[in-house]
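In the design runs reported in the main text, the only information available to the sequence generator was the tokenized backbone. The following block is the verbatim input for one such run; it is reproduced so that readers can re-run the procedure and compare outputs position by position.
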């Protein structure tokens, strides 16, 4: 489950994985063997953001655009929640 909202002056994307979450499957599993390397976690923002960038202290290997976020090698684990915090203008 992925939700997003403005909170404390930052745009916060919260990723909550189910107990049966499988990172290998999210990254493309057998599809990647034939076509691409590991697929990143991707999230298309529900609204266009003005000059978004990762907030300080975030250690995600991410690409942030006004329309989407890509996180490479997120290491998500089953049954946990993660926050991706963005600073916007």
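Verbatim output:
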């Amino acid at each position: 489950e992925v939700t997003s909202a403005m909170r404390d002056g930052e745009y916060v994307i919260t990723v909550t994985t189910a107990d049966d979450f499988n990172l290998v499957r999210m990254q493309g599993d057998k599809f990647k063997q034939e076509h691409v390397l590991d697929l990143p976690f991707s999230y298309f923002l529900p609204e266009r953001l003005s000059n978004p960038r990762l907030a300080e202290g975030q250690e995600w290997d991410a690409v942030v655009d006004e329309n989407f976020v890509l996180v490479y090698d997120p290491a998500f684990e089953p049954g946990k929640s993660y926050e991706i915090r963005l600073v916007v203008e």
